[in-house]
Specification:
mainly beta, single chain, 101 residues, six-stranded antiparallel β-barrel
């Protein structure tokens, strides 16, 4: 199975980058009723709550990571992801499977 990475963005609206550490585990939860993006996937961290969203724009997706739209149908209602790289432009995370085909 291919490794899937995603970019977490929108931290400025939550808690910023200071609370992220490499190997932190995030919970990714679909938000099908999100009024701005029907494929929105929020990122949560234990003790902090919502810390951002999976990027869903070519301008915010880092490198070869998946956008929320590409990931949306590959996961159930939620999934876990591990922080790999932290940059000023976003947090790159490795998504844990299994994935739907």
């Amino acid at each position: 199975m291919k490794t899937i990475y995603v970019t977490i963005t929108g931290m400025d609206f939550c808690c910023g980058l200071d609370f992220f550490r490499r190997h932190d585990v995030l919970i990714l939860k679909k938000e099908p009723k999100n009024e701005w993006d029907r494929e929105a996937i929020a990122a949560y961290r234990e003790g902090l709550g919502k810390v951002g969203y999976v990027a869903n724009s070519p301008k915010t997706v880092l490198g070869e990571s998946y956008s929320a739209g590409r990931l949306y149908d590959k996961i159930g209602k939620k999934a876990t992801a591990r922080v790999e790289v932290i940059t000023e432009k976003g947090v790159l995370c490795k998504v844990k499977g299994p994935f739907k085909d």
